[in-house]
Amino acid sequence: MSKNAQKIGWIGAGRMGTPMADRLLKAGYDVSIWNRTRAKAEPLAASGGKIVDKLSDLAGCDVLFSIVSTGKDLDQVLFGKDGVASAGKLPPVVVDCSTISVEESVSIRERLKKSGSDFVAAPVSGNAKVIKAGRLSAVLSGVEAAAKVAQPLMEVIAPQGVSYVGEGELARVCKIAHNVMLGVVIENLIEITLLVNKMGVPRHAFLAFLNNGVMGSMFTRYKSPALVNLDWTTTFTPELLRKDLDLGLELGREMDVPMPVTAATREVLQTHFGAAMLQKNPEEYIQKDFAALAETMALAAGMKLTPENKDVPTGLEH
């Protein structure tokens, strides 16, 4: 089957789902898209996306993708009263790019198998800016034959690299470990940036030094503008990061792997939720980017941060 004849279904047109689906559309794939709020999916029609009103409209696709917030959300869109399965069938391959627990993934895999569908776990590494820059990467696990169906599609979405790590839920474990590191790195990056800043070093100057050296990374580069200019446009919420740190700590307990740095990071992040209550609109504030933790940590250091208003490269410009 040529790629243009392959019918792709897509569930989830949020911050990540929209640019991911857009890459498939621009590569010439036939993609039908459902989102809980239809208006959020409609911009994809400009790239040739077919916006559907019912999840059951996706049942006849060859490959179904999903990217949602939680395991409960995934279960609902697949098996709920008005889910994809309400059509009486499911696509032969279901590829999920969400970050959910191992237990939730096992349960969904078993239910799909009973319906004759193979489940591929395909979590990704990056945010919307990374996707648009063509720097997204992904990790896959599941039955190898199904993973081979998913891999060419994932390589369009994540051209930086797609790694198949084995059967079952191993990709879930990899993504949870990835997001644990995300939390630890942002906490430490904020910590050291505040230290040098309080001693008189401009944040933009320190981060330029760090990013140009051996400790710089794609992540430290693209988070630097936020830390310099206090732009907390959401790429990933503190709530989702807290969920992933909890998932990582749970796996550590199950496998008897000590994770003291992760545990400390989780507690530092928790202070951000308390600090949010001091804001004029706590619910809105806590939905800002997880890097806004810098403001909470600054308060603990006796500092009041102000934007430096510097043009800082993200490392994704080219």
How would you describe what is shown here?
The protein has 318 residues and is of the alpha/beta class. The protein folds into 2 domains: 7-168, NAD(P)-binding Rossmann-like Domain (Rossmann fold), CATH 3.40.50; 173-300, Orthogonal Bundle (N-(1-d-carboxylethyl)-l-norvaline Dehydrogenase, domain 2), CATH 1.10.1040.10. Helices cover 48% and strands 11% of the residues. A 6-stranded parallel beta sheet has the order 3-2-1-4-5-6, with helices on both faces. Strands 7-8-9 form a 3-stranded mixed beta sheet. The radius of gyration is 20 Å and the shape is globular. The mean pLDDT is 96.
| Helix run count | 13
Helical proportion, percent range: 40-55%
Major sheet attributes = 6 strands, parallel
Order the strands across the largest sheet as they lie in space: 3-2-1-4-5-6
State the assembly state of the protein chains: single chain
Q: Give the name of the CATH architecture of the largest domain.
A: 3-Layer(aba) Sandwich
Relevant CATH superfamily of the largest domain = NAD(P)-binding Rossmann-like Domain
Number of domains: 2
Radius of gyration using CA atoms only: 20 Å
- In the CATH scheme, the class of the largest domain would be Alpha Beta
Q: State the low-pLDDT regions, or none.
A: none
- What share of the residues does DSSP label as strand, in percent? 5-15%
The tally of beta strands, per DSSP, is: 9
Give the SSE string: EHEHEEHEHEEHEHEHHHHHHH
Write down the overall mean pLDDT. 96
Shape: globular
N→C terminal distance: 34 Å
The SS-based structural class is: alpha/beta
According to CATH, the fold-level topology of the largest domain is Rossmann fold
